[in-house]
């Protein structure tokens, strides 16, 4: 068929597009689809198929739509098989009629499945001639392509060959990378295993540990299946198996010690100091025909000498599962392992020698250290049992496997037996053996030691001797189970007294005791006995100190109660509450305090305390249910007789009936049996009440010490209660006095006001009538006396108001500067009469919210004091503003006040010593300070004797712009 030039150009274009796709396509099939379409177009074929083999020989086929891939693949396989044996370059195959095709002669079904009439098959091959597959164009009718079309199709076949070659190269690269990665992993694993071997050698200390490292870590690293390590014995007389792996137990037992005769590969390796390589079982039997070895089942063997500086320390034998040729790298690895093993063995030999020398040194110093430790322990111990047990524990595991300690009790023939074992698992056996309280008559060695005071050594304890140590079959069995092969019994002697004996016992597997061990046991026993005797002396001293401590504790409690009562002051309720709390905390579970009523007939509950609030409420209720008379019940009897009374272990059942204590039954039902002690409160020969203390009867009952302590507490409490009662009575008297002063002041004030009015009228008329000067002066004096009497009555009323808390303030805006000036002006006549010059410094208004009348009272009092005590010298009144406050000060140049009196003059009815000759009640300054403090301010004095005084009144005053709290 002739193809026009346009078709050739189109074919070239299609090939170019396929090449572009070849560069960018993600898969082979995408390129084959493009090539298949253009091949069919170039050859004017109905269908096209491409068949190729992958590197693993699998045949793959691509077919255009409408063509069976399975049939096309089968035909391609037939053709590729036919041309496989043809040398040279395969030629295209043109079949005009598939019915006459020789390849399908035996495949009629395939011809039917194909359904085609003719075809053109082009071989796929690389330049080297490797055949990769076939490109087939299928025609439903008879068709013969033109030469140009075949050439164009050849270009497509070449393109497909290039694609397949690229894929083959990619596959080879991938496989080579996988092989390299696998080799790298294998090499890394091998190196890590050798690294583990090196680390294992670094940790191994003994020869057996080195051999174990070789087999456990070295065998896997070398790929061997079995291995044995034989080491030359330290005396050089034999070769002993140190470790094996992969060897049957019976073979291992036979090879424990190698025979010194016979033809053996291991001896050859040791004798020649060269490795023996046996690459197959035939080579093994040919060279060593009579060898019977654990490696006989191996297909290949290697025997490596373990050398250090030319000295053979042993032989390493390796067995491999398959015959093999030992390559130079493998031999190098095995020899390196053997060299490291030899170095590790040399190091282990040095370590074993050093360890043996250290053990000898430790054994030599053991006695000294044991004695030193025992001395340190004994110096710290103050209990004899702790002392003996401590020495026994020090010896356990080091000097003895178990210890038996027999100690004579003080002043008797009885013994206390202590048994300790180094193995905790055998503790139950020692406890059972100690319960038998071994009889001295059977322990003849202990009996002899206690009698003579000399130690006893039994180097080898025979069964016959062991049977004589006890007459009890069970104890004999226990002794056998505990293990007793050798023992030493040493006496515990101190200050000429034999306190007991200590026995050190060793079991099987330990060297028997000798004379040196006996000397050490005697020294240990001597030091333990001295510590035990010291402990006895210390115990006696401690008992004396304990008695002294209890006395000190009782005294401390008395002081504490006295201090608490003193801190409670004269408040009766607080005194009794503090008392019952302190007694409950120190001496019981519960405490009740009852006081004799005013008529002296009954006992009234004053206070009760129990830590549990519900129990406390129950006690209060049951005590009030039954009101006791003096002389009735336990408390009443204690009050009437003045004696302390006890009741021990009182229970609810004992309170059945109608006795006075029956009311307490609910408490005993709830709390159980109780011990009771009732102590009278006696002050100045009279019993004012009773203290009842209860505590659980399961504890220690009340005794003589508790009685003495409680009686002392009760005596102090009675005095405090009596003082509190007297103080309460005094307070009542003072309240009556204040009430009387208040009533009297109000009753006197009305007639006094009338009298003052009449006296003022009389004085005025005397002046107007121009009577004699003496008569007018007397009238004025009587008027002033009335005014003074009015001031005194007002002071007394203020005292009663302040004491009763009824001083009330009427607050309003007050100018303190104006108030001071008005006060000075109002008292100008008094200043003139006293000859005092007065000066006021109040330059600006000082306004605040205060009580005007009360502040006038303060200013008047301060000015009056300046007149009375100023000794006719100038007086300065100053008003000024301070931060957040207003300040008024009155300064005179009078007598002055001593520092120790500056606090006292502000108290009621108190005056300075220097002014005793001046009349007054001593209430003014106290009232003034109370008024100042009721405003939230202060009143103080600054003074020195002979230099006058300055009284300073400070009142709170908000800053400008700050709102007042009033």
From TrEMBL:
GO molecular function, one term: phosphorelay sensor kinase activity
Keywords: Coiled coil, Kinase, Phosphoprotein, Transferase, Two-component regulatory system
SMART domains in UniProt: GAF (SM00065), HATPase_c (SM00387), HisKA (SM00388)
Sequence ranges assigned to domain Histidine kinase in this UniProt record: 743-959
Record-linked PROSITE patterns: HIS_KIN
Gene3D superfamilies assigned: 1.10.287.130, 3.30.450.40, Histidine kinase-like ATPase, C-terminal domain
Top EC class for this record: transferase
Keyword Kinase tagged: yes
Annotated EC: 2.7.13.3
Catalytic activity annotation: ATP + protein L-histidine = ADP + protein N-phospho-L-histidine
Coiled-coil segments: 159-189, 527-554
Protein name: histidine kinase
């Amino acid at each position: 068929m002739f193809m026009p030039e346009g078709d050739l150009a189109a074919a070239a274009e299609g090939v170019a597009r396929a090449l572009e796709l070849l560069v960018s396509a993600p898969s082979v099939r995408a390129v084959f689809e493009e090539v298949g379409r253009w091949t069919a177009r170039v050859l004017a074929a109905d269908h096209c198929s491409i068949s190729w083999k992958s590197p693993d020989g699998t045949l793959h086929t691509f077919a255009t739509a409408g063509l069976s891939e399975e049939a096309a693949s089968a035909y391609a396989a037939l053709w590729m098989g036919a041309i496989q044996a043809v040398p040279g370059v395969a030629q295209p195959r043109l079949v005009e009629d598939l019915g006459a095709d020789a390849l399908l002669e035996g495949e009629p079904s395939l011809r039917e499945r194909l359904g085609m009439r003719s075809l053109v098959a082009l071989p796929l091959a690389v330049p080297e001639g490797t055949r990769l597959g076939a490109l087939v164009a299928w025609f439903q009718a008879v068709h013969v392509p033109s030469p140009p079309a075949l050439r164009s199709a050849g270009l497509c076949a070449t393109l497909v060959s290039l694609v397949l070659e690229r894929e083959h190269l990619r596959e080879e690269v991938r496989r080579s990378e996988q092989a390299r990665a696998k080799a790298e992993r294998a090499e890394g694993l091998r190196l890590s295993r050798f690294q583990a071997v090196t680390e294992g050698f670094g940790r191994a200390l003994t020869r057996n540990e080195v051999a174990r490292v070789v087999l456990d870590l070295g065998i896997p690293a070398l790929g061997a299946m079995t291995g044995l390590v034989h080491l030359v014995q330290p005396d050089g007389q034999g070769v002993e198996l140190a470790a094996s792996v992969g060897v049957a137990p019976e073979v291992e037992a036979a090879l424990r010690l190698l025979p010194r005769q016979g033809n053996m590969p291991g001896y050859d390796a040791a004798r020649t100091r060269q490795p023996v390589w046996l690459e197959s079982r035939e080579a093994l039997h040919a060279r060593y025909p009579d060898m019977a070895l654990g490696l006989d089942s191996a297909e290949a063997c290697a025997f490596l000498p373990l050398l250090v500086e030319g000295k053979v320390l042993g032989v390493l034998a390796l067995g491999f599962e398959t015959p093999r040729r030992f390559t130079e790298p493998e031999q190098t690895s095995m020899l390196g392992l053997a060299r490291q093993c030899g170095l590790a063995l040399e190091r282990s030999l040095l370590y074993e020698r050093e360890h043996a020398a250290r053990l000898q040194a430790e054994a030599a110093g053991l006695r000294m250290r044991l004695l030193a430790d025992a001395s340190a322990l004994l110096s710290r111990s103050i209990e004899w049992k702790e002392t003996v047990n401590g020495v026994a524990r020090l010896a356990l595991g080091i000097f003895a496997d178990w210890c038996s300690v027999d100690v004579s009790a003080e002043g008797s023939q009885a013994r206390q037996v202590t048994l300790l074992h180094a193995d905790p698992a055998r503790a139950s056996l020692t406890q059972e053996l100690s319960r038998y309280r071994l009889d001295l008559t059977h322990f003849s060695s202990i009996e002899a030691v206690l009698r003579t005071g000399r130690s006893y050594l039994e180097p080898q304890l025979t069964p016959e001797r062991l049977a004589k140590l006890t007459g009890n079959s069970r104890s004999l069995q226990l002794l056998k189970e505990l293990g007793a092969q050798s023992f030493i019994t040493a006496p515990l002697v101190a200050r000429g007294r034999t306190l007991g004996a200590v026995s050190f016992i060793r079991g099987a597997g330990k060297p028997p005791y000798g004379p040196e061990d006996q000397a050490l046991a005697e020294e240990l026993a001597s030091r333990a006995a001295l510590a035990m005797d010291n402990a006895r002396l210390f115990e006696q001293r401690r008992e004396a100190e304990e008695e002294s401590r209890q006395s000190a504790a009782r005294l401390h409690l008395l002081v504490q109660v006295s201090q608490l009562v003193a801190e409670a002051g004269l408040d009766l309720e607080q005194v009794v509450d503090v008392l019952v709390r302190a007694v409950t905390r120190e001496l019981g579970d519960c405490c009740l305090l009852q006081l004799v009523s005013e008529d002296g007939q009954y006992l009234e509950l004053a206070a009760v305390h129990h830590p549990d609030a519900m129990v406390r409420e129950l006690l209060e209720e049951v005590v009030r249910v039954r009101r006791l008379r003096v002389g009735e019940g336990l408390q009443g009897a204690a009050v009437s007789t003045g004696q302390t009374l006890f009741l021990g272990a009182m229970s609810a059942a004992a309170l059945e009936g109608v006795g006075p204590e029956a009311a307490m039954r609910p408490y005993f039902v709830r709390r159980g049996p109780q011990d009771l002690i009732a102590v009278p409160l006696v002050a100045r020969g009279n019993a004012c009440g009773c203290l009842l203390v209860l505590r659980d009867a399961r504890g220690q009952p009340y005794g003589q010490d508790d009685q003495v302590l409680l009686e002392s507490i009760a005596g102090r409490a009675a005095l405090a209660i009596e003082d509190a009662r007297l103080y309460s009575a005094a307070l009542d008297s003072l309240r009556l006095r204040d009430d009387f002063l208040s009533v009297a002041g109000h009753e006197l004030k009305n007639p006094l006001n009338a009298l003052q009015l009449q006296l003022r009228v009389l004085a005025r008329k005397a002046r107007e009538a121009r009577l004699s000067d003496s008569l007018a002066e007397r009238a004025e004096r009587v008027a002033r006396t009335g005014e003074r009497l009015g001031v005194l009555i007002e002071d007394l009323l203020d005292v009663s108001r302040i004491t009763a808390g009824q001083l009330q303030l009427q607050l309003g805006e007050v100018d303190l500067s104006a108030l001071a000036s008005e006060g000075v002006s109002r008292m100008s006549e008094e200043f003139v009469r006293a000859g005092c010059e007065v000066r006021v410094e109040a330059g600006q208004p000082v306004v605040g919210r205060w009580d005007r009348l009360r502040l006038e009272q303060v200013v008047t009092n301060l000015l009056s004091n300046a007149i009375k005590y100023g000794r006719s010298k100038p007086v300065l009144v100053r008003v000024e503003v301070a931060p957040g406050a207003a300040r008024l000060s009155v300064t005179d140049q009078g007598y002055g006040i001593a520092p120790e009196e500056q606090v006292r003059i502000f108290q009621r009815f108190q005056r300075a010593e220097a002014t005793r000759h001046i009349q007054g009640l001593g209430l003014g300054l106290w009232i003034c300070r109370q008024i100042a403090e009721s405003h939230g301010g202060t009143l103080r004095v600054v003074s020195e004797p002979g230099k006058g005084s300055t009284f300073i009144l400070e009142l709170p005053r908000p800053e400008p712009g700050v709102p007042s709290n009033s």
